[in-house]
Design brief:
The chain is an alpha/beta fold. The protein is about 35% helix and about 25% strand. A hairpin with a 2-residue loop joins strand 1 and strand 2. The chain starts with a strand and ends in an 18-residue tail after the last helix.
Length: about 525
Amino acid sequence: MDYKGRLTYAKGTYVEFVVAPNQDADFGDILVVEGKNGDRFYIRAYDFKVKSRWSGINNVGYLMNKLDGDGQVQNQEELDFFLGGNHTVKIGMAEQLCYADGQGQLFNPKTCPDFFCEVRGLSPEDSSLLAEMRGDLEIGFLKSGRGVLELPVGIYGSKAITEHVGIFGTTGSGKSNLVKVLSGSVIDSGNYGLLIFDVHNEYYRDLALHPEINGRLVVYNTNPQSDYARKLTVNYNEFDPEHITACATFSEPQLDAIYKLSTVLQENWMKTVLQNETADIIDEVNESTGQKFQSRTISKIKSICWNLEQELNVREGEGSAIDELLQELEQGKVVLIELKNVSPVGEQALSTLLSKKLLQSYAAKSDDERSKVKPVMIVLEEAHRFLGKKEYGSNNVFARLVSEARKFNLGLCVVDQQPRLLADKVLSQLNTLFILGLASKADRSKLEAMCRKDILQQRNEIKNLDCGEMIVATNYMRFAAPVKVHKFEEFLLRRNGDAMIQATAPGLPMNAISQNGFTV
């Protein structure tokens, strides 16, 4: 048993304990107070102080008299005599997280432990607490202070995916690795779909090491250069004004013209705009609405449409890949949309188009039909571009996903470096937060204010998170848990062993897998 010390004070959920001699206790340590009748109180240390019988100002003054004018010890033996014995103690300040009764049932804090109860570290005996934190989508091991316990922590996809997830951390904090681990767990499960907009084409190379990719991973690219990716094509009639307005900044007259064009020209409006002269388009709209637009207004719309046509393979008469893509998500597959070679204009238009099609598809299903398809989560990187304060106010498709998608079995995973740039209404809808290292105090304060769990006492811990360490706060956990995220390659090796090394990944060179399974 990992004995740590004894409880010396408790009031409400606040407790203090004396750290036993020769024992270590750190910020963030999750400890157990052994109560009476088999009760166990789970606490987290968040601060420390040192007390001594010499701590009073008069006694400190007396000890200072034993030093010379330079503050150096004059007689070490004499000073050791005064400081010897158990006169100095280290006191841990902690908050109560929850407690378990003698039958192992967990409760939120309702009472406090008795004086001088034993304090110890976590052990496998604390199965009730650990079972609640395991989940079916594993992401890492429980972290306690400076140590990492071999106790898996995950989220329950059936609860977390449709209630939206936020992943926040600065560059180099481990966001991409976390998305890969989450994707690997989704592939293992087969119970959920995942749509990832891969801005930097960074995910396939690692996800390809998973032995189940042939049946569970699909990659789309607008201009595929490798065998593993399918070509993404779009039909003219699949574009509507929202997809155009999402990808560029337009003036009020230009916005008015886009919606007028779609109304007058109907579903083939984009094709008509591209194939006709500016003057002819102005005349046709003028005949139908009595409103005459300037040529430069129509020219800008034509320019944006032409760029999208070239980048996104917009065609007429060719089969669109979107219907097949939606079916794959409904079947519980991970779908990667590679966007490295697509401009920001094309990226935002395509992200909006696919997300809206997915929302429309799930919203149109009856309850019986919806029960037969898998819940789907959309992973959106640099999310402030779509869900900032100004963008959220425009009520774009992502704003509607945040507020409406839960009832349709859809969820959004918001990935960003600066959560303070997101609209408050977006942050308030994220029921699961993965908080990695954040350098900005403003970002940390924003999450403290918006998090569903009280993380104020974890300020020191969050401020000092290393790469791959995070705080997980979700509705169904009783407290925000510190987690060491698995390294993706190690995660696959532990879960799949030799099957991972033997897996054949289309388009991946043989030397991409070393003897121990790591990418090189």
